[in-house]
Structures are given as C-alpha cells and as structure tokens.
Amino acid sequence: MLFAGLLGFTPLLASADVSITVAPPVIPVYDQPPCPGDGYLWNPGYWAWGDDDYYWVPGVWVLPPEVGFLWTPGWWGWGDGGYFWHAGYWGPHVGFYGGINYGFGYFGTGFWGGHWEGGHFFYNTACWHVGAGLRNTYVNHSWVEEHNRASFNGPNGIDRKPTAEEERAAHEGHRELTEEQRAHERDAVHDHAQKFGENKGNPGRTAQTKTAHEAEHKEAEHGTTEHGATEHHGNEHGTTEHHGTTEHHGTTEHHGTTEHHGTTEHHGTTEHHGTTEHHATEHHTAPQHHAAPEHHSAPKAPAHHAPPPKNDKKK
C-alpha cells in the first residue's frame, strides 16, 4: 500500500493527505443503539486508515459543537491513482458525503435523520432509533435509499457527483471533528478487533451509544470555569461573603463557594427570635448556578424575648 503523506502509522486524523491503493471494505450492516438523550446526533460508523490497515470506527451518538449544526460524514474517493479520505465536518447544512449509504438518515443523498427548530432537534423516527423518552419526534419515509454498500466513490463503487446545494454547504462556515470524535477514532485504531486484517469486514464493535470521552468533550466545550469556581464577593443583601458553612445572623453572611446543587439541609427551626441558622452540606462538583439565591435577613423580634444564639453547627 502506498502513501502520499506522512501518516503511515498514525490514526486517520488528516487523511486527505493519505492515498491508499486498496479500496476500503463495504459498510457493514448493523443496528443503531437508541439515542441517549435530547440533542444527541448520530455519527455513522466508517472505515478509517491507520497502522497500515483499515479499521472500523463505530457509529455513535454525540453532541454537536453548537446548536443548529449537523454532521456531514467523511468519505473515501478515488483519484490520482489512489483512494483519498475527505474528512467530515459540522455545519448548518449537510453537504456531499460521496453518495455513500451509511444508513440511519445518511442514505447517499441528503440527510433524513431530523432537523433543528427553535433551538431543539426534532428526530425522524422512521430512520433513527430514539427510544421512548424523547417527545420532539416525527415520521418521514420519503427518502430514496442507495442500496450499494460500497464505502468509496469511484470506479466499482459509488458513481455520484455533488449537487449545487451540497457544494454550497461545503463552503459554509463549518467546524472540524470535535476532540471527543478524534478520541473516539483513536480508541478504534488501538483496538485490534476493529482492524480489517483481524475481522475481515465484521468488526467486533459496529456501534455504541456514547463515546468514552463525552465528559472530556463537555469540559472542553463548556470549561470547568464557565460558571466558575466562582467566589462572590460584594454587597448582596448585606455584607455577603462566601466561605463555608452558612450562618444567617441578621446581617446575612454567606460562607462557601456558592453551589446550589446538592442537598441543602436547613437545621434550626427558623425561630423568630433574631437568629436563623442555615447549615448547608457542601458538594465540590463543577458548580452550576441556576439562579441568584434570595437572602432574607432574619425577622426582628422584641429584644426582651431574644434567647442566645444556638450553636449546633455540623462538623
């Protein structure tokens, strides 16, 4: 096998630079796992090249890099004496993917898996397995499926050219594979059962529900400091500081990195005698702030009935 680039023994991460003289195997027939949740989009499986062999990258549900984006799968095409890989990308419209029948909405022409509307993705259950938990679904059977399972465009494979609409989609602003997708691809190249030399076209893992790197993808996209390990200093309903176990003694002081997840227990029966104590269990997860908490100072009571403050803090 010949190469026209520098990726002879590395995963297929920039494989438009790679020319292979042996055609990729046919697309295997497999079942799609159910969609794991709202907003996930299906990335169909494909044959990639690395470590001197084709290997199957399992189909998987992934989150798009931004709302409104769709996935155009990569594809192999014949030209200049070899098979070249044209990498997939994210964009507002699905472009040309070689006419390859990847199944599950990618039947060779266009995209039938669903559409974005009002910031939400609506799933076409005629070709995507979404399970019973999603309500934003519809049914559309109007596609024409290419039954050729060849995984490349060219002689003895798929003979199809891009439409004007698909060419326009290729020139729209789009984004490359996410880090989660790249890591998913790397996992496959290191799994010998995925290599064509081992499985003869029947890989051990054809599809999976999620990648093993979804948490890394979310962290990269949103950042662990999006809402911060945010300390709030300033004058919020009194002198407000956030440092630890929260006590409210008239002038409201708030101690702790204000995390409003977790179990907040309120001990002390908020007696109307001047002192209200709130003891909160802290949870050190990536904080998310859903709303600025309202802080009400303790109601005043007549001075001659004010008992000493309770000291029942939890350790």
Distinctive features:
315 residues, mainly beta, 2 domains, four-stranded mixed β-sheet, three-stranded mixed β-sheet, 4 helices, globular
Q: Stretches where pLDDT falls below 50 for ≥5 residues?
A: 1-15, 224-315
Fraction of residues in helix: under 10%
Count of DSSP H/I helices: 4
Instruction: Give me the Rg, rounded.
Output: 28 Å
> What is the element string, with H for helices and E for strands?
EEEEEEEEEEEEEHHHEHEEEEE
Number of strands: 19
Strand order in the largest sheet: 1-8-7-13
Distance from first to last alpha carbon: 67 Å
Name the structural class: mainly beta
How large is the share of residues in beta strands? 15-25%
What oligomeric arrangement do these chains adopt? single chain
Mean pLDDT: 74
The dominant shape is: globular
Biggest β-sheet strands, sense, barrel: 4 strands, mixed
Total tally of structural domains: 2
